[in-house]
């Protein structure tokens, strides 16, 4: 696949232009597989999960897996009706509603799609966990690939998620909205089981308040478009995960998005090393366990930026690079 080696890496410094770049697509989403929500999806949601074991759990502060280990999640290799895909611990839902910390995921065209999907697919099947990704923004040039891989890894929702009041309310709202949705095929999720849902170009404010049980997907071409999209919804994101080959746009997003925590090429990293500095509004930098932590003051608000360094980075070659980062000019304006 073109640029696959480049996209599945963790280089966090600006690099020279490549000989070839991906061609921007004309449309935001594939139109041939557009699906409308039907009444069957809304009212036939129950699935039998009795007697099955627990769904594998990814803890909140789990480090991002190495590129070579991420790949597609275990959902891709499991049977659609396996016990792991049908069960859910009800305490996870109850706790997550109380401390729901929604995440925004941004995937650039040369970002590491494998690692991004690792967390995105988990949130797709467990949308009420406390740190679930609720909105994903993907660069238009790789949207079709991402949609295909999301759809291929969809499995039945467990009964407690499928019958959750917020998920059912979102399903009913989608009946009245002319929005394209991405759902699993009947081979993956046979009726009457409930499918995960990705809503294209929709906003959570259209579906309800609080966690909606679905993921909203948007495409973008520039960093400014990302900012415009985020300002149109009412979700207060607790964190933003950004997947890109270089830090270009990272600080522009940190300055303009109303969010505190920004993870670059990683997700759900333990913030313990930087929390003391953030608590006293101190601009600071720490390198702890091969992660770079820093606090940044934007107007009156302190923000946290985290990204991996050293062994967490996949090196493309052994050539030495003498590259200096340009100063962040707009921060001084």
UniProtKB/TrEMBL annotation:
Entries under InterPro entries matching the protein = DUF1487
This protein's source sits in the domain of life called Eukaryota
Q: Which Pfam families match?
A: DUF1487 (PF07368)
UniProt protein name:
Uncharacterized protein
